[in-house]
Design goal:
heterodimer, A: globular, B: mainly beta, seven-stranded mixed β-sheet, 0% helix
Amino acid sequence: AQSVAQPEDQVNVAEGNPLTVKCTYSVSGNPYLFWYVQYPNRGLQFLLKYITGDNLVKGSYGFEAEFNKSQTSFHLKKPSALVSDSALYFCAVRRDDSNYQLIWGAGTKLIIKP
Amino acid sequence: NAGVTQTPKFQVLKTGQSMTLQCAQDMNHEYMSWYRQDPGMGLRLIHYSVGAGITDQGEVPNGYNVSRSTTEDFPLRLLSAAPSQTSVYFCASSGTGIFNEKLFFGSGTQLSVL
């Protein structure tokens, strides 16, 4: 069965420290991987995606993610966290043979403390 | 830049009532979709459309209907509301082709069914 796991419900990071939000997936075929962010009382916003090519993908607001095929992971990272990064982060995956349908993780709440 | 516009933002229904959630986008996107977001469950796809006149079911379609008469509009109808449909609903649209695939979300509708 296809699935996406975000193993941490919440991640706490001090401002200025690096942050990592974890995502692992299970799909057959080549995956297309996405990260979205949801600020309080807002819709989701696209951060970045991996389709093919370089395993390190750079996205909006200084975020990046590393695709690791052997570990079936797509962790979101940022070298230096800002308080304004505090939000709910979602990982999603689509099989390359599916019709736009995404499988979503449950979300990880990121809290950046001053 | 309106993007994806959803109305209403809040709605309270009694069990058995029907209503329509409106969604419109001004980006000429072929792909449109409806999701529901429940705590700890991520997003679940209700229905989607890949163009005017074409709709298909997602993961949780029961109790919901959609139609796509124009490229811009994709309303979601609750036929007979049930307490299990209490949720936050998001409409999203995207360009087609994997390199254009990036969901743009509306601001959401918070629905309570009593």
